[in-house]
From TrEMBL:
This is 1,4-alpha-glucan branching enzyme GlgB. Signal peptide: none annotated. It is an enzyme of class 2 (transferase). It catalyses: Transfers a segment of a (1->4)-alpha-D-glucan chain to a primary hydroxy group in a similar glucan chain. The gene is glgB. GO terms for molecular function: 1,4-alpha-glucan branching enzyme activity; cation binding; hydrolase activity, hydrolyzing O-glycosyl compounds. Belongs to the glycosyl hydrolase 13 family. GlgB subfamily. Keywords: Carbohydrate metabolism, Glycogen biosynthesis, Glycogen metabolism, Glycosyltransferase, Transferase.
Amino acid sequence: MRKPRATAATSGPDGLAPAGDVAAIVAGTHGDSFAVLGVHEAGKGFVARCFVPNAEFVTAYTLTGKEVGDLARSNDAGFFEGRLSIRKRQPLRYHARNAGGDWWLTDPYSFGPVLGPMDDYYMAEGSHLRLFDKLGAHIIDHEGATGVHFAVWAPNARRVSVVGAFNEWDGRRHTMRDRKDTGIWELFIPDLGSGRPYKFEIIGPDGVRLPLKADPFAFESELRPATASVTAPPMAHEWGDEAHRGFWQKADPRREAISIYEVHAGSWQRRDDGTFLTWDELAARLIPYVVDTGFTHIEFLPISEHPYDPSWGYQTTGLYAPTARFGDPAGFARFVDGAHRAGVGVILDWVPAHFPVDEHGLVQFDGTALYEHADPRQGFHPDWNTAIYNFGRREVVSFLVNNALFWAEKYHVDGLRVDAVASMLYLDYSRKAGEWIPNEKGGRENLQAVSFLQKMNKELYGHHPGVMTIAEESTSWPKVSRPVHEGGLGFGFKWNMGFMHDTLEYLSKEPIYRKHHHNDITFGLVYAFSENFVLPLSHDEVVHGKGTLLHKMAGDDWQKFATLRAYYAFMWGYPGKKLLFMGQEFAQRREWSEERALDWNLLDFPPHRGVWQVVRDLNYLYRSRPSLHARDCEPEGFSWLIVDDRDNSVFAWLRTAPDGNPIAVISNFTPVPRENYRVPLPKAGEWREIVNTDAADYGGSGMGNSGMVAASGEGGGVSATVLLPPLSTIMLEFVAD
C-alpha cells in the first residue's frame, strides 16, 4: 500500500512557493522536494527555489557562468526563491554568501531524472539484470555536469535523503526523488566525486527517522568500525586474463582438475605488526604460494563488507563491496587479474541465505520488513541471530541474482560457493514444531528459495559460461548439481559433507578398531556420483574446539603425520574435486583463529615440510594425470580393486579416463606394513609407484616398492604382489605391457 505524502501546491502568480511547502522543506518532512525546489515555470517565465542553510544571499547562474537572477531569502533557515532570466528550463549553479565568506554549489533539483521508464518497468518486474549499473552510487556526466547519481529502493519510506560530510549529514539538504511506481528513490548530486562517505537518511511510514542506512548497492565501504558507504570511481582496471577466462569458458569443469585452496584473507599471513595485508601484498605472497603448491583455485571466505571480524565475513552488510580491510575495490580486481594471469582461479564464498541485524544494514530498511520476512518464523534465523531474505519478493530475488552477476562481470571471479544452502531449502531448518510456517502445499520445502537458487544459477551460467557455482548443502536434497531443466537446483558442484564426516570419523579411531568401521570408507562410493562433488576439508573442521586435521588423526605424533599424509593421498585419489583449508597443507598444529596468521614457522620442521611436499606432489599428479581428474563425477572412472579387507584396513581402487593410463590407489590405514600383499590389477605389465606417502622425503619410514611393481596373469586373473607401508597410501600407474 502506497503511503500519503505532502506535495507542492501550484505556486501563485508571483512564483512563490506556498508557506506550508517551505516549512516542510525546512523541517525535512516534505515527501516530494522536486515539486518545490529547483527550476519551475511561473507564468511566462521561470523561478528557482533552493534550500541553502547558513546562506544570507544567493545568486543563480547557468552552468556556463551567466548570471540569471538574485534569489530572495523567504525563510531564515535558508530557503531562497526568485525569478530567472532564462528562456528554457536548465540546470543552475548558485553563488551563496554570508558574513563569513562565499561558496558555490550546483542545484541537484534543477536536473532531470537519470533513470528511465524502461528501468522502472524491469525493476518493478524483478527482471532487471543490470541493477548494479542503476542502483547505488555512480559517478556520471548528466545534463552538462559531473557528479554522483544515487538510487535506492525504499518503497515504504516517506522521505529518503543522501547524507554525508558534504552536506554536514543534514537530511534536509539532499532529499531524493521518489519514482513512486517502483519505490526507487534517486538523486543526482553534481560536483561530488569519488571517496566520499555517505548514507541514506530514511523516514519510515510512521514518520519516524530511522538509524542511518548504508547503501545496499554500495561498491565501496568505510573500514570498520565505521559503517558508511563510499562513492567509488568507475572500475577502470585493464584486464589481462583473456587466456584464463577463455579456457574455462570452453571447458567442462567436471572433467578438469579442480584443487581448491580455501583462504581467510585476514589471517593467512599478516604484517609483522599484526595488521592485515593489502590485496597487492596478498597477491605478491599468496598467488606464488598457490602456484608453487599446485592448487588450481583460491576460495576466499566472504570478502564482501561485514562489520564483525569473528563472523569471518558470513554476516555481510555490503554484498556489492569488497571489504575495506584489504584496501580499495581496485586492489581486489588487481588480485583476481594477477591470479588469472598465473593460471589460478578465484572463487568467493557467497551468502544469500541471511544477513545480520546491524541497524545500518538491510534490516527494517525503510521502516518495514523489506528484505526480510516480517514473521520471525520465516524471517529470523535462530542459529545465527540473523534475518532471512524474503525469497518470495521479486525485488529481493533481483537484488541477490544481480549480485551474483556483479561479481562475475565486474571482478571476473571464477565461481561462487553458496553458503548454508540447506538452511535456505527447509522452512523448518533448526526450528521446532510450531516455529515455522509450511509452504502452500503443506510441506517443509522452501519453494521460494528453490526458485531463487534456480534463477540465480540459470542467469549466472547463461551470462557467464566460464563461472561455476558450488553448493554447501548438507542434506540429501536431490539434484543439487543437476540442471534446472532436469528439475535440479542448477549448481555446478556440491560439497560432499558425508565424505568429510565419515573419513574423519574413521581416522580418529585407533587403528586396531578401524576394522569395525570399514563401512565409513566404503559407504561414500554408494552415492559418490549422485552429484558433482567437491571433497571439502574446510574451515568448519578446524574451528570451535574441533582442533586441526593433524590432531584428529589417531596415535602418537609419528602416526598422526603418517595418517594425515595417507589421508591426503587417499582423498586426491578419490573421485571428486578437492578443497583444503589453509594451514592444513602443512599440518597446522594450533586450531585456526581469525585473529592471527598461520604458523608458517612450522615449514622449517621436516614433518610439516613433508606434509606440504605430499600435497604439492599430489596436486601435480592430480593435474597431470587425466585418470585422477577427468572422470571425477562419473562412475565409469572408478572401480573397486579391494573393498572388503576390513581385517587389514586396506582399500584399493582403480581410476581411469579415456586419455590416461589407469592408476591404482591403495591405502593401508594400520601401522603394520603389509608385505607380499596381492592387489588385483586390470593389466599385466609394469606399474610405476608414482606416490608413496611413507617415502623418507616426506618424513616416512622409507618403505616401498623400489618405484615399480610387475603385474602378471598367473593363478587366474592379473595381480601384483606389493609392499604396503604402514599408515600409507600408494598410487601405481600402468606404464608398459
